[in-house]
Amino acid sequence: MTNQPFALDRKTMTAPAMWVFAVAASALPVVLLGSIPATYASTGVLAVPLVFLLVGAVVGFLSVGYTEMSRQAPHPAVYYAAVAKGLGKSTGVAAGFIALLAYNGIQTSLYGLLGAQLSDTFGGKWWVGALIVAVLIAAFGSSGITRSTVVLSLVLAVSVLVVVMFVIAAVQNPALPGNYNPDGFSTAGLTGGIGGAAAYVLASLMGFEAGASFSEEARTPRGPGRSVSVALLVLVVVYAVVAWAVGVAVGPGQVTTGLPDPMDAFDLQYGPLMPPFVTMVLIFAIITSMLALHSIAARYGFGMAREGVLPRWVGSTGRGARTGAPVGGSLLQSGIAVVVIVVFAVLDLDPLASLFAWFSTVGALGLMTLLILTSISAMRYLREGGPAQASGWKRVIAPGLGVAGGLVVLVLMVVNADALLGSAPGSSVPLIIPAVVVACAIAGLFWAGYLRSSRPEVWEQIGQGQGNRHAVPAARLADIEL
């Protein structure tokens, strides 16, 4: 059976599989070994575990509007379609542009982190390893989703094991005997750079929303929403516990005075062979996070291109063994990543201080902006034209609380951008990063205006989704001879 070029594979993604993509995108070992120690060291906040719970609650409120709109407007490019449905097509296109910037930014930033880690571990230039992995990501991203799911599941299972082993090591060997970091969940520990801590924590949680991008490939309509809710809950709880364990292992007096190294706890509890093993798990976790984010970015490109907002070739899908894979979107994302790696290599810019810091901050700001826009869209759509059965909790209360809290967190992120970036006082980079997000949104609005005036057939299709649902057979039916 021959497939048409603009349909994703059907009924291939279960709710657990979508959950795997969401949690893998967050990269548990990266947060354990990098984000949480950096949050303690750069902000001086002792109650980082409590910050995870507080920011997690805000994101939880925002996720209510996001998941409800993903059900009302199932689409690979969720933010684009959800915002278009509630706030209009022009705003939807602007949201789509921000989403492409954000997901490509975060995914590409990880090439800097991975390249630096590979260089430290094995030697050589950072960009050599980054380019090799870019080829591997492109190969997996343009193939069927099943193969990627298996790889992500295996690495995630080992990552969870490493996290559990760290918590056990911390509890078994507290830095101060009998002191189990009581300030971790106490408001008394909310001193120092709270804004910077909130920014770090939010960046660590990004990726939880990934499951909704697989709505057209889901086996059940409720699967994407459930995967989003469960992924967020798991990430918030796990990271709060891990942050508490870091405080236990290092000690409340030292955790904010230097850069805590969780590797010391592994070495103390399990011996000298454990840190090298954890380092390898870290490398594979970064790679699978990149693959998960690549898959999301590819689906955003596919979803917008299918409706004519992006060039049509970006919406092409594979044939044969790659049936239903977003090949065009995958090639676009891989091309962006390779160009960025080459440019940073030629300019001899630091992969961590420049590529990773700049691009990940752009991505985190963009995604927070999109969560807020989607909640505003949900309030308007569900109140004016949505299903009558939507409860007041979904229509007003949760999105409203999310928008209020989200705006506070977004302002804190912008004000404390220098903490996320690690930039020197007086640097213009913290001002440029938010400006890039704003410029991207403005470009989207201008492009939407062009489509409305010059390409009305495209304008009418914006945010509609679904395409030809019968172009690709369901995976369970693919082997049946007709």
Outline the structure in words.
With 482 residues, this protein is mainly alpha-helical. It has one domain (15-472): Amino acid/polyamine transporter I (Up-down Bundle), CATH 1.20.1740. 70% of the residues lie in helices and 0% in strands. α1 packs across α11 (274-306), α5 crosses α6 (126-141) and α11 crosses α12. This is Amino acid permease. It comes from Winogradskya consettensis.
Portion in strands: under 5%
Per CATH, the class reads Mainly Alpha
- What is the radius of gyration computed over CA atoms, rounded to a whole number of angstroms? 22 Å
Number of domains: 1
In round numbers, the mean pLDDT is 89
Count of alpha and pi helical runs:
17
Q: How would you sum up this structure in a few lines?
A:
The chain is mainly α. It has helices at residues 15-26, 28-43, 48-72, 78-87, 89-122, 126-141, 145-172, 194-205, 223-250, 263-270, 274-306, 327-346, 351-384, 392-415, 417-421, 429-454, 456-461.
